[in-house]
Amino acid sequence: MKRILFVTIISLLAISFVPMAFCADAVKIGVIDFEKIMKESSAGKMNQKVLNAKGTEFKNKLEKEKQSLDAIGQSFEKEALVLSDEKKRERERDFRNQIEDFKIMQQNYTNELKNLEIKMINDMQKAVFDIANELGKREKYTLIIEKKNAGVIYAPDQIDITDRVINKYNAVTAQGN
Q: For FRET with 8, which of 17, 25, 108, 113 sits at 20 to 30 Å CA-CA?
C-alpha cells in the first residue's frame, strides 16, 4: 500500500512539472486595430475619398431628379384646373410612377454604395491579414488578434502592432500603384 501511495505521489509531482517545461518559450502576442488601419492607412484614406466622391455623385443625381419631380408636380398643380378628369388621372398616374422610379433609384444608389464599401473593406481586410500573417511568421508571434472583432477588452500598448502593419500596408500599396 505504501508503495502504491509513493508511486502515485511521484507520478503527480512529475505530471505537475510537465506543463512548466512546455511553457518555457515566451508567448508573443500582437494586436491589430483594423478600424485604425482603415482610417489612417493611405489605402484606407483613398477608399474613403472614393466612397465620398461616389456618394456626392449619387446625391447630386438624386437632387437633380428631385428638382425635376418638384417642377413636374408644380406644373401638374397649375394645369389640374384646366385638364379633363381623364387627362388629370393619366398625369397623376405618370407622376406617381416617376416618384416610384425616384425611390427605386435612391435605393439602387444606396445599395451600390454599400456594396462598394463592403468590397473595399473585404479587399483591404484580406491584404492586411495577409501582411499580419507574414509578419507573424517572420517575427515568430504566437498569436495576432484583431482588436474589435476578437473581443479583446484589454491589450497593452506595447503589443499593438497596428502602426507597423499600417507602414507595411502603405509600402505594399505604394508598390502596387
A: 25
Residues in the chain with pLDDT < 70?
A: 1-25, 150-156, 177
List, in order, residues 6 or more apart from 143 with CB less than 8 Å away: 27, 28, 29, 30
Beta bridge pairs of residue 31: 145, 160
DSSP three-state, residue 145: strand
Burial of 54 (0-12, 13-18, 19+ CB in 10 A): middle
Q: What are the beta bridge partners of residue 32?
A: 146
CB atoms within 10 A of CB 61: 13
CA 86/CA 81 separation, integer angstroms: 13
Q: How many CB atoms lie within 10 A of CB 27?
A: 8
